[in-house]
Each structure stands twice: as C-alpha cells, then as structure tokens.
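Researcher: I'd like a structural prediction for the single chain below. Treat it as a standalone chain; there are no partners to consider.
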Amino acid sequence: MFKKHLVILLSLFILILFSACNDNDKNLSNSIISPRESKVKVSVSIDAMKEFVQAVGKDKVEISTIISTGANTHDFEPKAQDILKISNSDIFVYNGLGMETWAEKAISAANNPSLIVVDSSKDAEIIERKETGESNDHKHEEDYSHSHGNYDPHLWLSLKGAQSQVKNIKDALIQANPSNKDYYEENYNKFIYQLEKLYNEYNIKFQSLEKNTLVSGHAAFAYLCRDFNLEQNSIRDVFAEGEPSAKQLAELVEYCRDNNVKTIFSEDMVSPEVSETLANEVGAKVEIIYTIEYPQGGMTYLERMESNLSKIYESLVE
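Model: Treating it as a single chain, here is the predicted structure.
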C-alpha cells in the first residue's frame, strides 16, 4: 500500500513539474522573438495562408496548419489539438471574411494574451457574396448570413488580393520578430514582384480576348475575375452549399450555349459530378482548377495560380 501511495505522489509531482515547465516555455514563446530565436511559431487556417507566411518568413518561421487536407473548410470545427497549436503560437493567421467561422472562439479558447492575430483580409477591397439558384428565401438568407457573413471570402485566389494579405502577414512577422525586419521586407518585396509579374503576364493575355466567361463548380473566383475583367457563373454558391435545382441547371445550359462555353471548371474540393453533367449537356470538357485550401502535388501557390490562369485563358481562346 505504501508503494502504491508513493507512486501516486511521484506521478503527481512529475505532472506538476511538467505543467510548470510548459507554462514557462509558453511565457517565453509568447514574448517578442529574440535575435537568437531560430523560429517564429505561426499557426494558419488554410494552405494558402501557409504559403504566404512561408514566402515572407522562409527559414525563420515554423508553421502549423489548422485545417487538414480533406476537411470541409467552410464547416470546420477545431479540435483540442488545434486550439493547443494556436495557444503555443506567436502568430495566428486566418483568411477572414466568414471563411473561418470558428476563428474568434478558437482564439478566445487558446487563452494566449501575447498572440498576434492576423485577419489577412484587413483593409482589402472585398466583394459581397451572391447566392446562386433558388435558395434565397428570407429565412435562408438570415441563416446564411449568420453562419458565413455577407462577403465572398476567396480573396487569396486573386493575385491583387494576395498582395494585401501578404502585407498584413509581413507586418505581423516584423511585430513578432523586429530584429529580422529587413529580412522579412526583402522576402516580401520578392514575392510581391512575382505576384505582379504573373498578373501582368495574364492581364495582357486576357485583355486580348473577346470572350470573358468562366463557368465554375462553385463561386470561388470572383476576386480572380475582378483582376482580369472576367465574368463568373457557377453551379453552386460561394460556400459550395446545396445542389443546383433543375431550373438553375437549365439556365446554366442556356448560358453556356449562348456564350459558347467549351470548358466547365470543377474545383479540387467539390465533386465534379454536376460539372460533368453540365459539360455533357453542352458539349464541353471539364477541367480541374485549384482553390489552394489544401496542399496539392507539391505545387506552390504561384504554380497553382499559374495553372489556374493558364487553363482559364485556354478555355477562352477555344
């Protein structure tokens, strides 16, 4: 019996000691990063935010992504380990605009008073969301706005929008680690140059075309379309919710025929079934484009954006 009590007491002592060490480590990690600190700990919501942090922070950041591959980003609910990631971070970066409906509660639950929180959409020129189909009755409108907000969240799919988001991230890294300000500024300027270069290349291409219509699986590309003066029509709404009605599909068939649409785009996160049905009806093909919410095939943000733009451009010269 004595041995049993001794084991319990030792276990409790080790647990208390471990907790104290964790608290000390957390207090150290929550302070401004010293010049000797090798990594700034950053938690991000989705892969696009990880790409932006990596572009600016490079080898001076350690990044944890909250939403894993395959999870539904729009209906995601963080688990205890996700809250712990945020709690142990110096910076938390999320997209904003109703994309991460869980972010505010997760930040509160993380209970990290030194956490630098980055709503990357801050100060961006945003687009109000538009519903598709017939599901726009008053009650649905209220429920929809309550859960997701009134804005299209897919800012990162715009090269111009990405520039705004990357600036907010750069500013946060400098706040957390001011001794490496010049390093972050240099990386930021290089990445902005790459974004501008890709934008200028495709702006010239798109401006030379007569057609400007894009039909996608869900309405994720309004910001990209704004960049290049394109017109988006989609099967599902901004948050890929619900199934299109027979009336909506009939209207899309008519739209595709009227505009000589030869490609129906389907996104990596959405089932291609309805896109394939629409394509078969109008004699078009289906192409997959990236929403960059998850990692894909080892491709960078710039590579995936170039792939998207190339496929969209080719669809308009057919």
